[in-house]
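Narrative summary of target 7.
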Amino acid sequence: MINKFNYYLKNLNTLQVGNSLFLLGVLFLPSALPISGLFLLPALFISLINKNHHILNDKSNYYLFLAIGLILFSALNISFLNKDILLRNFDISLIWINLFNWLPVFLYFWGFQIYLKTHTQRILFSKFLIIGTFPVLVSFVLHYFFKIYGPFKTLFGLIVWYQKPILSNGGPISGLFSNPNYASIWLVLILPFLIFLINRDKKKSIKSIKSLFLFLICLSVIYFIFLTGSRNGIIGIAITIFFIYGLKKFLIFSTGFISFLYLSKFTQYIFNLDKSLYLVKEKYFLDFTFQSPRIDIWRSSLSLIKERPLWGWGGSTFPYLHINNNFFAPRQIINAQHSHNIVLELAHNFGIPLSVLLSITLLIFLYKAWRMIFFQYELNQEILLEKTWFVAIIVFLFSHLTDITFYDGKINILVSILFAGLKCILNQKKKIDKGFQTAKIK
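Modeled conformation, tokenized:
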């Protein structure tokens, strides 16, 4: 018996196990984060100890190692070396706890690449992501149509479906998420993958059934994004359609969709779109004006960054410092949990050098991806998936110019996986280009 067990262990393909664990983690990610973690953590461990997975071989990772060093030194500096008097009543341990929002992202980025190296692996990820989002859509249906409110908790409160009561005047909905903006960004991030799967079986007989089902799911996702009242959600829809289909189809879709919303009274009666459109109109147009509360939040962020430009104030300090900020006179006191801009957030937490380093590294990374993915002459299945991946990241980054949903654990992990997948796409294309050039020389 022992010999058989040893034989099994020797012949066990640990990467196959890791890949299965990774996909199961993706499946549970949106609805049950702790269960997802039980699968993703061993998958990450298997990847990082794999002898063929050498992080140091990629020189672009050196900038990320430098970023980690700057983040850790910033935390040490504000905690022990140069603690500011303004933080005398602040719990410094929160600064170190906040690092768990940032440092694991680098490990996710490196570790999950091994499960996204091939086109087939990325298709599997897309399918598991969409299937895993079904509970989110169910929570929206229960929340909005059946007025079933929570919170619902299980596993000693580790898993929570919030289902917060909707305001009597028709406020935004969030489903199982704790915040409408979190719900919106999740839905808009899966939208490109839905579009890919709808178009994937274009020449197959199964398309008539499966694509119709996916198309209905896609419409549901778009509709629920409207109901969240998120401006970034609507902009995300526009970005997705524009990048995947181009300007002409984007204008056709926009015209048709707006006409549908305003002219279909039957649909408005069933889904109460009048109220939803009013919510969208009021929220979006206010946020695009100088009356937006975000203007004062950004001013507060800049004033704080000016005081500690090199090493920042540390993570989790912004809510405390913003309320007690004496460096500028706000028009109104706003209880903000973060700076509502990812570049300002990085500069406030860890200093301007870290913010500049990560911003430039990211821009170069995206520029390379854009050149490799969008300068293709034929829109085949593989290129469509690559566009999907790129668009999802662009949507995420654009939304983080005016908000930060990155602090939600589900979104944090998903975005890390998306960056890992885009890195795999770049690596794969580099190998193809090198092989082509070598063959040409011969």
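Residues 2-441 form one domain.
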